[in-house]
Amino acid sequence: MEDRSDKDKNSHNGDDKKKSIGIRIIVTVIAFFLFIGAFMTIRNFADALKHKEITYDEFRKMVSDNNVKEVEIQADYDRIIIKPVKPLKEEDEMVEYYYTGIVDDEGLVEFLSEHNITFKRKIIDKGTTIFDFLIAYILPFALIYLVMWALFRMISKNGGFGSVGGVGKSRAKMYVENETGVTFKDVAGQEEAKDSVMELVDFLHDPSKYTRIGAKLPKGALLVGPPGTGKTLLAKAVAGEAHVPFFSLSGSDFVEMFVGVGASRVRDLFKQAQQAAPCIIFIDEIDAIGKSRDSRYGGGNDEREQTLNQLLAEMDGFDTSKGIVILAATNRPEVLDKALLRPGRFDRRIIVDKPDLKGRLAVLKVHAKNVLMHDSVNLEEIALATSGAVGSDLANIINEAAILAVKEGRTVVKQSDLMESVEVVFAGKEKKDRILGPEEKKIVAFHEVGHALVACLEKNAEPVQKITIVPRTMGALGYTMQVPEEEKYLNSKEDILTMIRTFCGGRAAEEITFGSITTGASNDIERATRLARQMITMYGMSDEFGLVALETVESQYLDGRSVLNCSDETAARVDEAVRKVMKDCYEQAKAMLTENEEILKKAAEFLIEKETITGKQFMEIFRAVKEPAAETEETPASGEEGENNEQESVLQTV
User: Fold this and answer.
1) Of 259, 270, 36, 11, the residue nearest 139 (C-alpha)
2) How far from each other are the two terminal CA atoms of the chain, in whole angstroms?
3) Which of 395, 424, 437, 607 is in Cβ range 3.0-4.6 Å of 445 for a Cys bridge?
4) What is the structure's pLDDT at 52?
5) Which residues have CB under 8 Å from 7's CB, separation 6+?
6) CB 215 within 8 A of CB 321
7) Which candidate in 448, 510, 511, 551 is catalytic?
8) DSSP symbol at 104
9) In 3D, which of 400, 403, 452 has the Cα closest to residue 425?
10) Is 448 a catalytic residue?
11) Model's pTM, two decimal places?
C-alpha cells in the first residue's frame, strides 16, 4: 500500500510540474498580447488628442480670419485637414490640426486662393503596416488557436469531452483510516444496523474466515431510514473502523449541466476504487441518481438515466474478491429503481429507524459524555419524554441544555435544563415579548386544562406532565405535555379514540365555558382527524369497511402524504365515517368536562395565576375536588404509597 501510494504521489508531482509549465506558457502568451493591445489603445488615445473635429462653417471662418497655414484635402477619407496658425480655443493647445468633412462647395478653391492659403489634394496609401496586419489578423487567430489547444489538451488528458476541465472527474472525498474521527463507539441506538455494517468491516479485515466456508463479500448495503437517524454517521464510523480507503460523496455530485458527465464521474469513481482496493464507496442521498426510470417517480431524464445505467453496469462489473464494498443511504427507498435494489448490487437493506427507549437513552449518553452533568441528572426521564425523536434531535437537546446552563451562569447541566431543552426543540423557545390579553389568556387556560382533564379522566391516556399558557416560537399559545409511563409499540382502537377525545377536550372546554369557539383548536382538529381517518382507511378499525386498506402513505420515512386507493363514492363514505368518529368523540369529551366543570374552572384559574403548572399540581387540584373525603380519611398502604410516589416522579419530569 505504501509503495503504491508513493508512486502515485510521484506521478501526480510530475503531472503537476507539466501542468504548471503549460500554464506559464499560456499566461505569458496572453500577457504579451494584452500588452500589445494596451499599447495600441494608449497610442490611439494619444493621437486622438492631437486632432479635433470642427464644423465646415468654423473652417471657412478660420480662413477668413487668416488663421490657416495649410489645407490638405483627403478625398479618399472624405475630410479636409486644416493646420492652424494658432488654436481656436485655449484648451486646444495640444491640437496640431483640425479636420472637417468635405461638402459640395464649388467655390472652395477660389476662396482659399483669395486668402493665399496653400492647399493640396493627397492620395492616401491604404496599405497596412506589418504591425497593423499582426494586430488585425494574426492576434485573433492566435488567441483562438491558444484556447483550442488548451481545450483539446484537457480533453485528451481527462479522457473525453465530458471531462473538460475536470468536469467528468469523480468528486468523491477519500478518507484513509481514522481521518473521519468517528468510530462505532460514537454510534448508539442502532445496534442491529451497526452489527450489519460491522460484518462488512470484519470481512474486509479478515476475508479468509468467510471465504473458507464459501461466503462471499456483499457487493453493497443500502442504509434506509428517516432523516436524522444516523445513516451518514454510521457510514463515517465504517470509515473510521475499516482502515481501508473510504470514498465518500453525495448523489448530487454526479449531476451536472453537461450531458454525459454523470456517467463519466461514475466510471472515474470505480476506476479510482479499483486502484485503491480493498476500499469502501459511500454514496449519500443515492435517490438523486437512482430514481426509478418509471415516469411515476420523475423518470424520463436522459442524463440521470445514463448515470444510473452506468452505475448499474459498474456494480455488476467489479469483482468482490478485490474487496470493494458500496454503501448508500436514502430516506426514499420507494423511488429507487428496482434494478438497483436487487441482490447482486445492494445485497443488504439495513434499516436505520427511529430509536426506541433503550436506543434514545444510549444516544443521550453518547452525546452527554463530553458535557458536564450534575449528579442528579436522570437521562432515562429525558429518553421517556422524547418518544419519536431521532438521534439528531437528541444531540440538539443535549447541546441546547448546555447552552441554557451557560446562559444562567452555571458550570454544569441540571435536569431542569434538559427538560427545558426538550420543549425548546419540539415547541420552540418561550416568547416572553408576546403578552396575551386577559380574555385570550383565560381562553387558552381553559383550552389547555380541557386537554389535561380529559386525559386525566381517560384510563388509557398518557399522564399529564406539564400545562403551560406561555406562548412558544413555533406558534403554540400554550400546550399540554403528556409523557408515557412506558414505551408502547402498538395502540388499540380504544387507545386511538382516547387520543382523539383528548384532542377534542380543548375545543369542548371553550364551548362549555364561553359558549363560543375560537381558532385555537385548529392543530388539535387536524391531528384528531388524521387519527380518525387512519383508523378507518389504514388500521381496519371500522365496522363499515372492515379489513380493507383504503389508503397508502408515500415516502413513509419523510412523513409523506396519504393517497386514497378507492372510488369517489367510497371516499365520500370514508369522509362520513370520519365525521361520525370526530362527532362522537367530541360529544364524549364535552360530556366528561361538563360532569367535572368544577375541576375545569379551579384548575384553569390556578393556571391563569401561575401560567405554568406541573402534572402533580394539576392532580392535587383534581383530587381535592373529586375525592376530598378520600384524601382526609384514608391513608394509603405502603405498597400504594410507593406506587403513587413512582407516578408523581413521572409527572414531575418537567
Assistant:
1) 36
2) 56
3) 607
4) 76
5) none
6) no
7) 448
8) -
9) 400
10) yes
11) 0.67
